[in-house]
Design goal:
Layout lengths: L1 H35 L10 H10 L2 E2 L2 E5 L5 E11 L6 E12 L5 E12 L4 E12 L4 E10 L4 E12 L2 E13 L2 E10 L3 E4 L4
Length: 202
C-alpha cells in the first residue's frame, strides 16, 4: 500500500511539472499559427521600427529649456533625438527648432535640419540649411550655427546670406550677441568679406 501511495505521489508531482509545460507548448503553437494568419487587425507598429527605436534609444519630440546668464530665455525643440553613448550630456537631434527671447524684448527663431546639443560643453551646433528670423526684420541663412547655452551668443559660419531692412547682405560669418558697449542691448554683426546690396525703401 505504501508503495502504491509513493507511486501516486510521484505521479502527482510529475504532473504538476509536465502539464503546465504542455500547456505552454500548446499556447506557443497557437501564437505561431495566428502570427502567420493574415488579419485586418494588425497592430499599427512595425516590429522593425520598435527594435530600431530600442536599439538607437531615440526620443520623440524632445526639448531643452533654460535661461542664459544675461537673461535670455532659450528653448530648443526637435522632432527626434538620440543620446550620444560616447559623451554624457550630448544628443543628436533632427529637425531642430529654437527660440531666443532676449530681455530687451527682441527675439530670434532658429531652424535647422539637424543639430547636436551638448549640455556638458554648454553649446548647440545646428547644421543643414540653418536659418534665423529676428524680430528686427532680418532673415539669415548660414551653413552652420553655434549657440551657447549659458549666454546669448550665436555664431554663424559661412557662407552667410541675409535679407534685412537695408537690403541683401552676403558675408563669411555672423554673430548675434550682447552689445559690447551695452549689455542691455543685442546686436547682429556680419563680418569676413561683407557685401551689401542696398535696396532703398525696403
Amino acid at each position: 500500500m505504501a508503495s502504491h501511495d509513493n507511486a501516486y505521489s510521484r505521479f502527482i508531482a510529475l504532473a504538476k511539472i509536465v502539464l503546465p509545460l504542455a500547456a505552454l507548448g500548446i499556447l506557443s503553437t497557437l501564437f505561431l499559427i495566428s502570427r502567420d494568419t493574415p488579419s485586418g487587425d494588425d497592430l499599427p507598429y512595425s516590429r522593425v521600427a520598435v527594435d530600431e527605436l530600442i536599439r538607437e534609444q531615440r526620443i520623440g519630440a524632445p526639448n531643452y529649456a533654460g535661461v542664459t546668464q544675461d537673461g535670455t530665455a532659450i528653448l530648443f525643440r526637435a522632432e527626434s533625438a538620440r543620446p550620444d553613448t560616447d559623451a554624457s550630456g550630448r544628443a543628436m537631434a533632427e529637425a531642430v527648432r529654437a527660440r531666443l527671447d532676449m530681455p530687451d524684448g527682441s527675439h530670434a527663431d532658429i531652424a535647422a535640419r539637424r543639430g547636436v546639443v551638448d549640455t556638458a560643453a554648454g553649446l548647440a551646433v545646428l547644421e543643414g540649411e540653418a536659418l534665423i528670423d529676428t524680430s528686427t526684420g532680418y532673415r539669415v541663412r548660414a551653413a552652420s550655427l553655434t549657440s551657447m547655452l549659458e549666454r546669448t551668443d550665436v555664431v554663424g559660419e559661412g557662407p552667410v546670406t541675409a535679407e534685412g531692412p537695408p537690403g541683401r547682405i552676403e558675408a563669411g560669418a555672423m554673430r548675434l550677441s550682447t552689445d559690447p558697449g551695452n549689455d542691455d542691448r543685442y546686436v547682429l554683426v556680419f563680418k569676413d568679406g561683407v557685401k551689401l546690396v542696398y535696396e532703398p525703401g525696403r
